[in-house]
Amino acid sequence: MFRRTSVVHLVDELGRAQRRERAREDVQLLLVGVAWALWGVRVELVLVVALAAMQRWVSGMLGDVVGGVAVAVIIAAAMLVRPVRCALLGLLRAMRLRRAWARATIDSGVASGPFRAPGVWSVTRVPAGELLDVHVRRGQSVAELDNRSEHVAACLRAREVRVLRDRRDAARASVLVVRRDPFEGADPIAWPMGEASAVSLWEPIPVGVDEQGEGVVLELVERNILLGGEPGAGKSAALSVLLAAGALDPNARLWLLDGKLVELAAWAPVAQRVAGPNGDQAVELLREVRGVMEERYRELLARGLRKIRREDGLPLHLVVCDELAFYLTLPDKSQRQEFAELLRDLVARGRAAGVIVCAATQKPGTDVVPSALRDLFGFRLAMRCTTPQASDTILGQGWASNGADASEIPGAQRGVGYLLAEGERPIRMRGYYLADDDVAAIADRAASQRTDAWLAERAEA
Ligand SMILES: Nc1ncnc2c1ncn2[C@@H]1O[C@H](COP(=O)(O)OP(=O)(O)OP(=O)(O)O)[C@@H](O)[C@H]1O
Ligand SMILES: [Mg+2]
User: Which residues are ATP-binding (predicted)?
Assistant: First the structure.
């Protein structure tokens, strides 16, 4: 009898202990939840508390009515003064996004619960949406966040979420919450150096803007660039910007290969040599450039240098080839092979000698641009392509399935492409545009500058 009573008592005691433990856990969860909710609205709370304190302080001195009026005046003044209004609304918007981000990372499984969401250190509004500076918590990784980016985007009701890990800090990432396509229906953007009297190819050349509205520049020295895209994607327009920079550099020499004859025609007066849609001319031109390159290497050897330097004043050579596919598919096999071999040689060996090759092709298939040749180009720009495979032919294997697929660029977006710069993640950008009149004006200016320089040199000699 005694034994039975003590067992029942023990079971009751155990049940009560379990219930107490569960209740304690529930209270703990509730407290964490409340603290988390309050933390999410900390800025709003501080503002409300500050206003309430102000109202009480003024009311204490001058009465309730004046206190109320004072608060109303402060709110009205903040709304009427534009910089204050913008700062305040920006802050409130950023806080709303932080709350949505925290919920999204919990719901998508990146964070295990409240106070475990990757921290948002700053929020910047950019043309494509919002750019967040994110720090992951201990035990999390940027790769995990990247893997769940589709889930996070769905929770945020955004078009896309792009995660870019900081190279120097594994815990830090730039996260672009894409809300809109900044290139949709946008007007062409003029090249900012169109009015410059001189440009140096040794300096970074502005070529376009990215989705965050930042200027994109290319440092061309010791680099080569390959552009690919379907007809009308904007390849020749992009080449024109590079040519304009080359033409305005009085110390640069331009070599043009124009498979269509008319695309680069405006730059002919400033070029060393031009080859049209003619295999012999193209091969001759490349042979000459190779001669220049070999001469340059002899010169460098004589000077005890391994590569060209800006202070030596040696001219850079810009070799621009539009319609590369035309030359790489010439009907004469030996001519075609010689062209491909000369071009490969220039791309492979020309960098240290100051030879920069810029080539554009309409057909970026591997049968036209072998990957051995493509891989030698440090910069690659994939403009709108017909298939993801064509996009990958330019950018390199795998990028299309990794978020950089040029076949997804809408047909109406001319001049938009993915730029891959030396192994970094491709960025989506829109190239600056030079209308025919601008091209003609720049080419004219560059030609007369070059003539003046030549005459001055003659006069000195
Ligand atoms: N960056 C740009 N901004 C705005 N419009 C552009 C841009 N680039 C190109 N375009 C528009 O697209 C048209 C076609 O461009 P472009 O001739 O450069 O294409 P392409 O790729 O060279 O075509 P194709 O392969 O047929 O030679 C231009 O006439 C211009 O109207
Ligand atoms: Mg073209």
Answer: 229-236
The structural domains of the chain, ordered by start, are 37-46+59-93 (no CATH), 113-180 (3.30.980.40), 205-460 (3.40.50.300)
Q: β-pairing, 379-383 with 355-361?
A: unpaired
Q: Mean pLDDT over residues 262-277, rounded?
A: 94
Q: What order do you get walking across the sheet with 119-126 strand by strand? A: 119-126, 129-135, 172-178, 160-165
406 annotated ligand-binding residue: no
| Mean pLDDT of all residues belonging to the chain | 92
DSSP structure class, residue 190: B
Q: Where are the beta strands (DSSP E) in 127-280?
A: 129-135, 160-165, 172-178, 205-210, 215-218, 225-228, 252-258, 271-275
Tens of pLDDT, residue by residue over 404-421, are: 999 999 999 999 999 998
Q: Which ligand is nearest to the CA of 363?
A: 1
Closest to 253 measured CA to CA, from 308, 298, 304: 308
Number of the ligand closest to the Cα of 412: 1
Known binding residue 331? Answer is no
Binding-site residues, ligand 1, Cβ < 6 A: 188, 229, 231-237, 362, 414-415, 430-431, 433
pLDDT tens readout for residues 339-386: 999 999 999 999 999 999 999 998 777 778 887 888 889 999 999 999
pLDDT tens digits, 52-84 = 999 999 999 989 999 999 999 999 998 999 999
Mutate to test the pocket of ligand 1, among 414, 432, 436 (most ligand atoms within 8 A of CB): 414
CA of 233 to the centre of ligand 1 (A): 5
Which residue in 244, 454, 187, 269 sits closest to 358, CA to CA? 244
What whole-number distance in Å separates Cα of residue 358 and Cα of residue 17?
77
To 5 degrees, how large is the angle CA 416–CA 420–CA 421?
A: 125
For residue 197, how many other CB atoms are within 10 A of its CB? Answer: 10
- Residue with the smallest CA separation from ligand 1 atom 28 is 234
The residue whose CA has the least distance to atom 14 of ligand 1 is 232
Nearest to 266 by CA among 387, 434, 418: 434
Nearest CA to ligand 1 atom 26: 231
Average pLDDT over residues 305-316: 92
Please report, for residues 95, 204, 344, the alpha-carbon distance to residue 49 in angstroms, rounded to integers and kept in the order given. Answer: 17, 51, 69
